[in-house]
Structures are given as structure tokens and as C-alpha cells.
Specification:
single chain
Length: about 110
């Protein structure tokens, strides 16, 4: 079972959204995609609630379903959720391994 995170969204009258924490490959797919809004795509992929066919049709997002996210949430909320999801997936942690490069002298 995938790890999930619950977030309370004030702009949706305090609704609580349950989002899946994506694995490394899923995140890499999003980061390397042609999407111009990777934060929204990350949230769309993580949250089943945004994949509702009725919602997608009602908001006119049939051609690009991830556009549902910015039509429902504000930019600051999207950024905050995206950062939380990345941190939960281990992407915003400080590196504990440091590359050592030695100079070779002739």
C-alpha cells in the first residue's frame, strides 16, 4: 500500500484531501514530461479526487486533465502541496553524501 498524506485545504471550506506519495520513477516521469505546470501534474497524479470524469468534463479539461488542479486550487496552495509531496517522497532533503573530487598532479 502506498504512503498517503492528508492536507486540509482552507480555500475548499476546510476540505481534507488524501494524496498518494509518489515513488521516485513516478516523480521522474513528471519532471521529465513536457508539462508546463509540473506542480499541478504532481498533485493530479497523487490525488484520485482530481481524476473524476465528471469534474474533468465540467471544467472543460478533457484535452489535459491535469488542468483541473489550477482551476480548483490557487497557485500558492498548489505550490505548497507540491513541496509537501516532494518532501514526503524524500526529494527536498539535504544531501548527506558529498562528492569528493581530487586533483591529480603530474
Amino acid at each position: 500500500k502506498k504512503e498517503t498524506v492528508k492536507v486540509k485545504i482552507e480555500e475548499l471550506n476546510g476540505a481534507v484531501l488524501e494524496l498518494e506519495v509518489l515513488n521516485r520513477m513516478e516523480i521522474l516521469d513528471i519532471l521529465s514530461s513536457n508539462s508546463t505546470d509540473k506542480d499541478s501534474e504532481l498533485i493530479y497524479t497523487s490525488g484520485k479526487i482530481f481524476k473524476d470524469d465528471k469534474l474533468i468534463t465540467q471544467l472543460g479539461c478533457e484535452m489535459n486533465p491535469s488542468e483541473v488542479v489550477p482551476k480548483v486550487l490557487s497557485h500558492s496552495t498548489i505550490t505548497g502541496i507540491s513541496e509537501l509531496l516532494m518532501k514526503k517522497a524524500g526529494w527536498n532533503e539535504k544531501f548527506t553524501v558529498e562528492e569528493v573530487v581530487e586533483e591529480i598532479k603530474n
